[in-house]
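anyone else get weird line breaks when pasting these?? whatever heres mine. first is seq + tokens for prot A
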Amino acid sequence: MSDEPRSRYYSSQRLELHYAVWGDESRPPLLLIHGNRDHARTWDQVAVRLKEEYCVYAVDLRGHGDSAWAIGGQYSMPEWVLDVARLGAELNRSPLTVIGHSLGGAVALNYAGIFPQHVSQLVAIEGLG
């Protein structure tokens, strides 16, 4: 299987958001959430190393990477958490292992706190809050 991910889109709160997929979707799901002013492809080297064990999903948060910008500038924790929850529902692969870096760590922690039934393992790297 190629080291290049497959690009996919989903809708959340009337925005078209992007995520990348590496690996075989029959493997356990792993969701990667990037930090502020970053994007899903930041995780390329991590995803390539983990794709033999997991199906790796990396989201572009709203206003980042290939995801849409929010009209009116709604960029706050509740919106990001809802966007991740919508992606989780789209994937329908619960529970997820979730890894987040910086802002993504804070989003991951909030997501796990609000939706604990959808998270099996959580790693927050330099997570805010």
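and prot B, same format (seq, then tokens)
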Amino acid sequence: MKIRHMAMLAMYTTIALTIFTIESLLPGLAPVSGIKLGLANIVTLWLLLYASQKDAFLCLVLRILTASLIAGQMVSFAYSLCGGVFCFCTMAVLFRIFGKKYIVFISVIGAVFHNLGQILIAVIVLQSFSILSYLPLLTISGIAAGTFTGLCTHYAAKRLTKDQVWLP
């Protein structure tokens, strides 16, 4: 990996971490703990659009690991990682099928799968299926959050030219 490439990935990871940190300081969107927009996913979507799946995945994993270490919440690391991997794998497959044109749809499905991944790891960790009762609310919040982050990415991609985009 070239130094410029590593520097660009570090920059995108830092941007994602900054967005994550700012979002974590905002009040919750719903009475259920853990529901948030997932604005750092904009960076993952951006890298899927303009870089490679490998770069997007690396940035995602580094953001989750670093955020968990900095926040001192290693307990939530498994939840974040499982949700992030579910989300990423789904978005990567859909991106290969549909391409850039359907980035909002891809984001929505990714957000729903992020919540599904977190629910599945919760069922395993808590050894209880009662957590599945949150799935309808998390699906609705995933659709809303995925739409918002997808639209943010879509409009940013429309406004910026290739010369204005820093690529790894």
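btw re prot B: The two ends are 10 Å apart (CA to CA). The mean pLDDT is 90.
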